[in-house]
Amino acid sequence: METAGKQIKKLREQQNQSVKDMAEALGVPLDTLEAWERGKKVLVAPDLARIADYFNVSTDFLLDRRKEDMEFHLQNPYSLAGYIFHLDHQRVEKEEMADMVSYIQARRRIKQFLGE
Asked: What pTM did the predictor assign?
């Protein structure tokens, strides 16, 4: 998982944190963290999730999965399970998400009616 390792190293360096400090914080041996960063050791899902939580990022971010590769069906609550959305540094609640879907649907109907 070379990509995840590169992302981990980048995040660690952005926070001016040493490999030793991060390894201690995660409760993993120093050589394990170094191996993850170099892509010499495969990250298993629980470790990947723990690191994502540590940096407050998604596992998709660590795996460098691009946003355009992800598809969500806003009307299907299971499609959004596990994701938390923020707008203006505030969490978007379920009711607000439903309002957003209603707005988009109404706007599309108006555009269709106007022939746009």
From this structure: 0.56
> Is 83:60 a contact under the CB 8 Å cutoff?
no
The strand ranges marked E within 9-59 are: none
| 79 contacts 86 by C-beta, under 8 angstroms | no
Q: How far apart are CA 8 and CA 5, in angstroms?
A: 5
> Sign of dihedral through CA atoms 13, 16, 20, 22?
negative
Reported as a single tens digit per residue, the pLDDT across 5-20 is 998 999 999 989 999 9
**Tens digit of each residue's pLDDT (9 = 90 or more) over 95-108:** 888 898 899 999 99
- Backbone phi and psi for residue 113, each to the nearest 5 degrees, phi listed first: -60, -40
Residue 90 sits at φ, ψ, to 5 deg, of -130, 145
